[in-house]
Design goal:
Length: 79
């Protein structure tokens, strides 16, 4: 039985069906690689944008924090 299976697989391996299947698998693989690369590039853009927005928030929050601390010190001294 295994001999028959091996003969069958040997005959199919060189057929047009096998060539088409390999070509299709290669196309799918290449599409996968392209999608992965696109995802990597786009994720980098999103992360950079998030970091930039976070830095803007930190800069906006710092003066308010400094002002509140200064106001507390002034109030305590006046009392």
């Amino acid at each position: 039985m295994i001999d028959n299976v091996n003969q069958f697989l040997g005959s199919v391996a060189g057929s047009e069906l096998a060539r088409t299947a390999r070509r299709s698998a290669r196309t799918i693989w290449n599409a996968h690689l392209a999608a992965l690369e696109t995802t990597r590039v786009e994720a980098g853009k999103v992360i950079s944008l998030a970091i930039g927005e976070g830095q803007k928030l930190v800069r906006r929050a710092q003066p308010a924090t400094v002002t509140r601390k200064s106001a507390r010190r002034t109030t305590r001294r006046a009392a």
